[in-house]
């Protein structure tokens, strides 16, 4: 399935140059590329969680490094494609680059459990089943596949709030931080350079907690709480920073804490919900987390248009990880997570 979704992304990008209007591009991205990317994201996390029982925190952190590496590499590369070949040629080249990632799921060896059919069930036929029974059986199987019961578990909502508390400020920061720094009086070049400090912290944060968590010196839930508090600090203090060096320091802290939180929340998902439920867990988290992503792209800009400053937006962004960690704190005292 991961191979198919990756190929679908490539096909979608190859269809973009054939578009004759912006509506065609929007349809391709929304119907073909977007869903395929979502499926790929979920399944890649599931494969990682199922293949690493030991040192899973380290594996999760290394996987998060790919985001910052791709961000640093693809931004100038895409601009080069646009300047050289135009947007149609750039889309085709990006499809070709994406096609190389098909090799990764091809090389994955997934161990499948083998079941032996009992002797008395080889030729079993449901001769007495009625149409209504079959319908009920179909819907029962569908509900078990969707795993709606996971939504009734407190552990799921612990993980969900922690992930949303990390993703909302992260997405908003990537969208609005350069504009925020320009509003503070920095030039576009300086603003971009200050943002690069986050990449340094991001690389460190990906593996910062892995030796402690993997060896049992630190609980994953405790690492999530520490990362949430650091992320809150890095954003909430931003309105009071005006010097370039101080902004660079706390920007690096933002990258460090956010990457650590991304890696640890995946580990926490496996710890609280189990290895076999990773697919449904990550799928539901991705689906229910869409409003938070939309809010991240809307709220800071709206607050800036209303007040003429991003300060309130960054304070709200900073508060969200700590507020989102409240269910985790309750769970630690109630269930000793």
N/C terminus separation: 33 Å
H-E string: HHHHHHHHHHHHHHH
Regions with little confidence, pLDDT below 50 for 5+ residues: 113-129
| Shape assignment | globular
Main pleated-sheet profile:
none
- Helical stretch tally: 15
Helical percentage: over 70%
What's the average pLDDT? 83
Number of strands: 0
Percent strand equals under 5%
Organism: Acanthaster planci (Crown-of-thorns starfish)
GO molecular function: monocarboxylic acid transmembrane transporter activity
Transmembrane segments: 22-44, 56-75, 87-108, 154-176, 191-213, 220-241, 247-269, 281-304, 310-330
Protein name: Monocarboxylate transporter 12-like isoform X3
Question: How does this model look, in words?
Answer:
- By secondary structure, the protein is mainly alpha-helical.
- Helices cover 78% and strands 0% of the residues.
- It is built from 15 helices and no strands.
- It has helices at residues 2-15, 22-51, 56-99, 103-107, 131-146, 154-183, 188-195, 197-208, 210-214, 220-236, 244-273, 278-288, 290-307, 311-324, 326-335.
- Helix 3 (56-99) crosses helix 11.
- The chain crosses the membrane at residues 22-44, 56-75, 87-108, 154-176, 191-213, 220-241, 247-269, 281-304, 310-330.
- GO terms for molecular function: monocarboxylic acid transmembrane transporter activity.
């Amino acid at each position: 399935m991961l191979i198919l979704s990756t190929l679908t992304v490539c096909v979608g990008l190859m269809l973009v140059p054939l578009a004759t209007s912006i509506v065609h591009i929007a349809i391709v991205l929304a119907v073909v590329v977007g869903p395929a990317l979502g499926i790929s994201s979920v399944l890649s996390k599931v494969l990682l969680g199922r293949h690493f029982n030991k040192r899973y925190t380290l594996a999760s952190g290394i996987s998060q490094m790919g985001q910052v590496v791709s961000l640093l590499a693809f931004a100038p590369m895409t601009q080069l494609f646009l300047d050289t070949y135009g947007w149609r040629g750039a889309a085709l080249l990006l499809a070709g680059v994406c096609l190389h990632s098909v090799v990764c799921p091809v090389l994955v060896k997934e161990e499948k459990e083998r079941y032996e059919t009992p002797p008395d069930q080889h030729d079993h036929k449901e001769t007495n089943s009625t149409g209504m029974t079959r319908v009920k059986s179909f819907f029962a199987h569908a509900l078990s596949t969707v795993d709606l019961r996971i939504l009734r578990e407190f552990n799921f909502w612990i993980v969900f709030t922690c992930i949303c508390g990390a993703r909302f400020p992260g997405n908003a920061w990537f969208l609005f931080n350069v504009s925020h720094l320009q509003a503070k009086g920095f030039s576009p070049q300086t603003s971009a350079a200050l943002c690069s400090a986050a990449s340094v912290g991001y690389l460190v944060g990906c593996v910062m907690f892995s030796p402690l968590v993997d060896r049992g010196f630190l609980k994953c839930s405790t690492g999530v709480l520490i990362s949430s508090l650091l992320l809150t600090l890095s954003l909430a203090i931003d309105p009071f920073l005006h010097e370039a060096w101080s902004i660079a320091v706390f920007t690096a802290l933002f990258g460090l804490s956010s990457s650590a939180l991304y890696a640890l929340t995946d580990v926490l998902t496996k710890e609280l919900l189990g290895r076999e439920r990773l697919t449904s867990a990550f799928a539901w988290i991705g689906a229910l987390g869409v409003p938070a992503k939309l809010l991240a792209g809307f709220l800071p800009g709206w607050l800036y248009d209303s007040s003429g400053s991003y300060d309130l937006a960054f304070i709200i962004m900073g508060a969200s990880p700590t507020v989102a960690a409240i269910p985790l704190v309750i769970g630690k005292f109630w269930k000793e997570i």
